[in-house]
Design goal:
Blueprint: E1 8-14, H1 19-33, E2 39-43, E3 46-53, E4 56-63, E5 68-73, H2 77-84, E6 89-92, H3 105-111, E7 128-131, E8 140-147, E9 152-159, E10 162-169, E11 173-175
Antiparallel strand pairs: 1-5, 1-6, 2-5, 3-4, 7-8, 7-11, 8-9, 9-10
Length: about 180
Amino acid sequence: MSEQLEAKWYVIHTYSGYEKKVKTTLEKMVENRGLQEMIQEVQVPTEDVIEVKDGKKKVVQRKKFPGYVFVKMVYNEEIWYIVRNTRGVTGFVGPNANRPLPLTEEDLVTMGLATDWVPSVDYEVGDTVRIISGPFIDSICKVEAIDMEKQQVTVRISMFGRETPVSVDFAQVIRI
């Protein structure tokens, strides 16, 4: 494939209990047909949960989104047809059955799926900002530090006549 298209994440709806079977089938199909550039990754997100049975704790893996499989693929009619007609798949998730919508980076972060997306902020150290949610709502303060890894900003808030450093999430602060 000579064209360089960006692969995006799509959500496929499956019959309940068929998630791993659909994942395996798609991975074999990709390997057999040489579609590694077009269908890059197939995931059934799981999480570890502690169950107590007969008084004993046991760590069990559970599906985060039962009935759904996540596929990172380059959308075109051929790939859409292949995925849609895989045994166990009932369709793509989205408002239009003929043109599925990819997940945004924000959707992936919200769902807790692995991503290398880094949010952008429109303020810098030293800028004046306003807190728009949380216990310090409507406080006007100065940015002291920005932690891209934790997605937090440290600001100096005046409380009881003293400047106090407080860490808040990026989404809680806007530039004024």
